[in-house]
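Write out the bound-state structure for inosinic acid.
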Amino acid sequence: MPNVVVIGAQWGDEGKGKFVDLLTQQADVVVRFQGGNNAGHTVVVGGEKTVLHLIPSGILHPGKACVIGNGVVVDPEVLADEIAELKARGFLKDDEQLVLSLDAHVIMPWHKALDIARENRMGAGKIGTTGRGIGPTYEDKVARRGLRIRDLLDEARLARKVKERLASAREELARLGASFDVEEAALLKKHIDLGRTLAPYAKDASLWLHRAIKSGKSLLFEGAQGTLLDVDHGTYPFVTSSNTVAGNAACGSGVGPTALDRIIGISKAYSTRVGSGPYPSELMEATGDRLRQVGGEYGATTGRPRRTGWIDVLALRYAVRVNGLDGLAITKLDVLTGFPEIKIAIGYKCGERNFDEMPSDLETLERCEAVYETLPGWTEKLEGVRRWDELPKAARTYLERVAQLAGVKIVAVSVGADRGETIVLENPFQVPRR
Ligand code: IMP
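---
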């Protein structure tokens, strides 16, 4: 069975959770490979709401394994709470169902304090991070001074590293004018305890995945955030601190790139963005408010209202290129019902200059305005639609135009929040392995 990667093709919050949930039914293992608890989705099972930030929702399916790869940054408290909540609800009965990479880096309390203190100091130039300590943790990883899950399991090593890192974090926090009233002994004890809680799951995840692939298991790689938030390929510096693109599914989990058989991008039928940064197709008026209201566009992690806009095919074409997308799944098409006309950003204008590909220079991009193509809308409700030819003609024309301009085929369309409210045109698990 092939291995499939699901990636956000925009700025995150594309509705990946629903497709991951749908595809999980056909996978044996679901893998997170980057990001941390800056991501999040709410899953409703049996009428009960569970919010998961770190563990893939595949954990709710008995018999499926979930892997948190080396590329993820793990807040051990958040992970321990998710495990406890899942167990309290009768999930994760078998500890073998969850694998946590020994090499994943740990978000420590000072990383969160630094994230918030730095943002506060930046004023108007702030990135609008989720405040979860993601950036400072990746920074320590790249600077080769981070703490990894394996360090939580070795008390002497943990004590040494905590002493060293805490002292330097205190210095920086003091410089930033932030207080950090955490006692070293208490912090150490707490993390030794967290290490004990997480120990049953901590493994060589790369080896575990290698064996799973060898034994014919099928893997689903679940991307977090989106392509335009990638630290290399996004709208830097208004990005997250990890590589969100498909290539990182290999690096962030320890499998070779040849194991990635199919790459699927997820895009809303319009667009949204949380936090600061350029967004040429943003709608600042009533249409944007309507998209926010109808689409329920408020962050799952922070509750912040999302910025909203029309779909941008320059951004999608870029996502097709940097991820090597094999197909695109469109979400929330139903939200567009009732708009008299629907626009597609097909180019940018920046002063006298016109662009038909995303400019790589941020300052240019910040001054760009979208140039639109306008298509007629539709009034029919879409929730009951299950087949492509049942969609209103105007909706099909819209999707066909998006696919043509983005240079990718549409493999699925979501017309409502429910798992069943989906039109599947091509099943990525039913293609041959590479
Ligand atoms: P950080 O990942 O918390 O450092 O935040 C950096 C940027 O990425 C900010 O603009 C956040 O709003 C954005 N971001 C982080 N995680 C998500 C997500 O899951 N969805 C959408 N935006 C996100």
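---
The longest strand covers residues 341-350.
The chain is about 30% helix and 20% strand.
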